[in-house]
């Protein structure tokens, strides 16, 4: 799997060369030169013009100081806003979970449907920092869970419409119930990790990502139910339930049991057994919720 792209130094631009960071060509200088040539004093009958009020304003030192002070205030205000936003919404951290590309999405979907074919489940690190998801298929992301949740709501609306049961209130109830169950899952797992005293690098955003992958299988089950009836629904949903169970077991055991392995805790130790039970419980809850949130959409 390819590693992170190495940083390439951009040579310093020479006079007359285009800036590599510039998005558009700067035509202002050429236009100003042409305009100045046309308005040259005494040239071709044009009278000599005195400095314009705008030029006089820009040439005033007091005005320049005021403009510099205003720019400084604007920069300080932007920095203050960014800091306050990061206090409540970790924008920088969220950018990591959306650093995906088309190849990653394809590989991740294949991993969710066929986890039995995958061997290496370790997350890759570079200088104690996990690499971006687009470079590691094992890394959690929020792009697929977010898109899967939106698609699930749309597919649920389609299923309700084919059964003449569609209403905005019912669709809103479907979406809010799915979000409520996801929130309860996250809170229950965080509480369980605290009670079992597990020191893990598993963050709340990681939990949302891993728990959100079940929407992919739910979409497949409902679509097959719409096309082939209940038989197609149960076959595809059953496959997806087993797949998500295997996926969660192999993923979470590296997160929850990693500390026990590092500390050399015996496999049959009491604390290690609790961690294994917690991993199994989280994985087993995914198929149950997949069925609970979709069975009423297929008739």
UniProtKB/TrEMBL annotation:
InterPro entries the UniProt entry points to: Yif1_fam
Residues passing through the membrane, by range: 142-161, 173-195, 207-227, 233-253, 274-293
Function comment: Has a role in transport between endoplasmic reticulum and Golgi.
PANTHER family: PROTEIN YIF1B, YIP1 INTERACTING FACTOR HOMOLOG YIF1 PROTEIN
A GO term from the CC aspect: endoplasmic reticulum-Golgi intermediate compartment
UniProt keyword list: Endoplasmic reticulum, Golgi apparatus, Membrane, Protein transport, Transmembrane, Transmembrane helix, Transport
Region (Disordered) location: 1-45
Family named by the database record: Belongs to the YIF1 family.
BP GO terms, sorted: endoplasmic reticulum to Golgi vesicle-mediated transport; protein transport
Membrane topology, record value: Multi-pass membrane protein
Subcellular location as annotated: Endoplasmic reticulum membrane; Golgi apparatus membrane
Biased composition regions of type Basic residues, renumbered to the chain: 1-10
Name of the protein: Protein YIF1
Organism: Monodon monoceros
Transmembrane keyword on record: yes
Pfam families for this protein: YIF1
């Amino acid at each position: 799997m390819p590693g992170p792209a190495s940083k390439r130094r951009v040579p310093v631009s020479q006079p007359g060369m285009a800036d590599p960071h510039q998005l558009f060509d700067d035509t202002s200088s050429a236009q100003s030169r042409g305009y100045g040539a046309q308005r040259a004093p005494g040239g071709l009958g044009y009278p000599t013009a005195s400095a314009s009020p705008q030029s006089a304003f820009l040439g005033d030192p007091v005005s320049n100081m005021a403009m510099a002070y205003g720019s400084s205030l604007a920069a300080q205000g932007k920095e203050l806003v960014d800091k306050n936003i990061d206090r409540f919404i970790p924008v920088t951290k969220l950018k990591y979970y959306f650093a995906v590309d088309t190849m990653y999405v394809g590989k991740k979907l294949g991993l969710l449907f066929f986890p039995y074919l995958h061997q290496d489940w370790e997350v890759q690190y570079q200088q104690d920092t996990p690499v971006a998801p687009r470079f590691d298929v094992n890394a959690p992301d929020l792009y697929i869970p977010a898109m899967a949740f939106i698609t699930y709501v749309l597919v649920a609306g389609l299923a309700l419409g084919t059964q003449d049961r569609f209403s905005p209130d019912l669709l809103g109830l479907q979406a809010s119930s799915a979000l409520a169950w996801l929130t309860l899952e996250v809170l229950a797992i965080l509480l369980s990790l605290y009670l079992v005293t597990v020191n893990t690098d598993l963050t709340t955003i990681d939990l949302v990502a891993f728990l959100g992958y079940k929407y992919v299988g739910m979409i497949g089950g409902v679509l097959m139910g719409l096309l082939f009836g209940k038989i197609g629904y149960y076959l595809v949903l059953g496959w997806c339930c087993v797949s998500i169970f295997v996926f969660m077991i192999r993923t979470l055991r590296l997160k929850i049991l990693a500390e026990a392995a590092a500390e050399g805790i015996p496999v049959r130790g009491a604390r290690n057994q609790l961690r294994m039970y917690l991993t199994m419980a989280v994985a087993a809850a995914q198929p149950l919720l997949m069925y609970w949130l979709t069975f009423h959409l297929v008739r």
